[in-house]
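Record type: ASSEMBLY
Status: queued
Input:
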Amino acid sequence: MSRGPRPGSTGSWWRDALAAVFVAVLMVVDALRSRGAAKGASPHGDGVAAPGRDRRAAGPPAAGQNAGPAAHGEPPPPAGVHLPKPSVWPAVLAAGVALLLFGVVTSLSFSAVGVVLVARALVGWLGELLHA
Amino acid sequence: MATIAQPYAYPPAVASRADRLLRLVQTTDHKQIGLLYLVTTAVFFVLGGLEALLIRIQLAVPRNTFLDPGAYNAVFTMHGTTMIFLVVMPLLLGFANYFVPLQIGARDMAFPKLNALSYWLLLFGGLILYFGFLVGTPPDTGWFSYAPLTEKPYTLRPSTDYWALGLLATSIGTIATGVNLLVTIVKLRAPGMTPGRIPVFTWMAAVTAFLILAAIPSLTAAQIMLLFDRYLGTHFFDVAAGADPLLWQHLFWYFGHPEVYIMVLPAFGIMSEVVPVFARKPIFGYSVIVGSGIAIGLLSATVWAHHMFTVGLGDVPDAVFGLSSMTIAVPTGIKVFSWLATIWGGRIRFTTAMLFAVAFIVQFTVGGLSGVHFATVPVDWHTHDTYYVVAHFHYVLFGGTFFGILAGTYYWFPKITGRLLDERLGKWQFWLTVIGFNLTFFPMHLLGLMGQPRRTFTYPDLPGWAAVNLIETVGAFVLAVAMLLLFWNLYASLRHGRLAGDNPWDAWTLEWATTSPPPAYNFATLPPVRSARPLWDLQHPPSPALGSAAAAGSTSRSAPANEVEAHLPVFQRLHIPTLGVLAFIFSEATFFGALIAAFIEYRTRSAAGPSPHDLDVPRTVLFSLALFASSGTAWLADRSLSRGSRRGFLLWVGATILLGIVFLFGQATEYRRLFAEHVTVGTNLFTSAFFTLTGFHGFHVLVGLLTWVTVAGIGLAGYFRDGRNRTGVQAVSIYWHFVDAVWVVILSVVYLWALL
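Status: finished
Output:
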């Protein structure tokens, strides 16, 4: 398999620095997420928001649900209303995909960090789905 | 129900900055995601606008040296790419994100987390695109990035890579948004909202989502081929190796022309909301205006080659594509007449939103008519590479779409923020925008007919050219002032604007039935939906009985009988995950269609080297049987789950995984044999197309296998006990059947065809 020369692949300090920054961001995101979970920042019901015909979301809320909007200074939703649960994993997954692609043109260390982010986000996302 | 909300109150004062940021990063609320889209696109709009000003400064006088040719190429490439991929399309998707769930009475999108993912991919994709500037290698081959110009021998720097990779990221997000919008509109409509009662903006969002799924994967496939050429040594666009020099153009414009309608149809939808409300009349010909939108969506997939008349396609293709391009003017014209008929005889309120809507009709019609000129092949030959084209598409996308966006901004800002935009400033901004726009772009028609070529960094001092170009530059700066006024209006009105109330325009669709801004849960109660104008019905009850219901203000969301529930069309009977996977598969079909088309074009095009006849067909057929059998075991797994047999389910899932592994093993050993014979992706055109097509299919099989392994894992943990959570398994099964079906096509085209 002939692999062409990697444009812009000459060594540069900013790539390693940026890769380190991204790893640090990942750690911060994880820490913030843990903090958010500890503070009960994700108390909403999960899943698809109350649809017109889809009745999956029409059941009674679990204890502690719907505290989120009240925390935002809004009245709590009516009984039985399920709101989508906040999640950091979509942002992490997008960052992972972006880094994976960015690494193709810059340095594969970015792609490696991207793969880690993608894997972590998918596991986290799946975990939230299973607990929904 | 009609209570006046407090002004925009999010984020709360009590939250710390870190908490607010965390909430924003974590949000899955369609309204906040919609706002993120709008704010992000506003930032990119400023960047794209500055690039436009640089272009106009350079072109203000003949033989200008303000920008050198390379810088000019970069600026005009980034201007086009930014405005199309990072401004207009995501801005409209931002509006759709915010207002489609509200218009159909839903609490959120069907897949809220996927919605968040789409936004973040847009942001990160845009950052990759602009990263090129930071390292001094901005994309510089035009927003269309024609290959072979973008191939390694002609573009050695990684500028094209930033363009392709950045847009790959945004495209994945856009496709996810397309899936989300379609499923949301099909599945989450309020009780009573039959297809004939869906607001026109939501209808146009649905058609747009369909187009996104049908068109964008073609660009994705082309970009992957380009990146493979640049990094893996394939030859998709390598003319020296015998590649078709038009392949890129076909794949790009198969995306590119529907893209125009992806950017125009939602603006048509905004028009169809704004015009009736401010003309105080129902939209003229609701079914016709919806039907014409659908017709535009379908026809837009048949017109791409009108961008390629000058390459010499031949008389028959020219005639076919010229005719189809003229045909698309018919449904478009129907819309214009529908808006005019709506205005005719109405009690018109000339708010800023309505002014922008009226200007839209005039300017878009000018752009549409010049579009018909380009459908006339000989006219196209003469004007294609001139400023006549630049005038045409700016009249469509700025004079049309962007004016529609501005109409929507003035119309919906009160709903988003709880405050009205300043009308006096708005009218100043309107007139400055109209004057600036027409000063900038109308003279380009004349310059085009005079022969000034587009995409060139300067021009000779021919009679009349300098004066007209200077006028255009002045117009661009007037436009810039107008946009500054808009941003000031947005800022000042957000802080001090007049309180709007729930329904300041006395409008009729459901988004106006909730507070301004809407609460996180959108609606506590919904009015009954008995027409496309539920709030009008509420104010004008046809009978005393209904009047008392209306006087009560609303109906519980779950209370009214759903008269259509018993007769749901097939798509609405599907579960949300199943429908989502079907929509995704639709986009995947386009992607594989592009790869298969490239393979058919290249399978025997190389004079030397390996060809399909060198493949071991019987062996591949044998391994294919394992994949086909796995579809059967997947079906049996699903059936076992439906019968509540967890053991049988796990057994058949295990068999599916095993058969999938056998297939991948077969593919891996086939590759090993070819590599041992020094047959690689870079050997010739056939191997480039062969490895790319079969490799991507293998990748899909691998993803499917990983999903099955996950299903098996959570099944072992007891997740599917008693047949629960079956919809997820059904969705995985459908994806797996699709992967098998694609292999039937690949096996036929790549292997069995070689036996003939």
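Annotation: Chain B touches chain A through 82 residues (CB under 8 Å).
Annotation: Residues 17-136+144-496 of chain B form a domain with the Cytochrome C Oxidase; Chain A fold (CATH 1.20.210.10).
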